[in-house]
Design a protein that fits this description.
The protein has 65 residues and is mainly α. The protein has one domain. It is built from three helices and no strands. The longest helix is centred in the first third of the chain and has 19 residues. It is globular and about 30 Å long.
Length: 65
């Protein structure tokens, strides 16, 4: 039972991070350094591990990014 609640918590954290992190498109008006810093801060705040961060990172890239 405890494992099930842990899985739900992880899914919730991943969903929270996904909602909080903007997409990066690579446009000239975007700053990749700032975007990465924000990504790292939100990932840390929501408790994502490295594997979760990697999966989320690629889902946030769009266009030429």
């Amino acid at each position: 039972m405890e494992q099930n609640s842990s899985n739900k918590l992880l899914e919730s954290d991943m969903a929270s991070a996904a909602k909080a992190i903007d997409e990066f498109t690579g446009k000239d008006t975007e700053d990749i350094s700032l975007w990465i810093k924000e990504f790292e801060m939100i990932s840390l705040a929501t408790g994502l591990d490295e594997q979760q961060q990697a999966r989320l990172f690629v889902t946030k890239l769009r266009g030429v990014a």
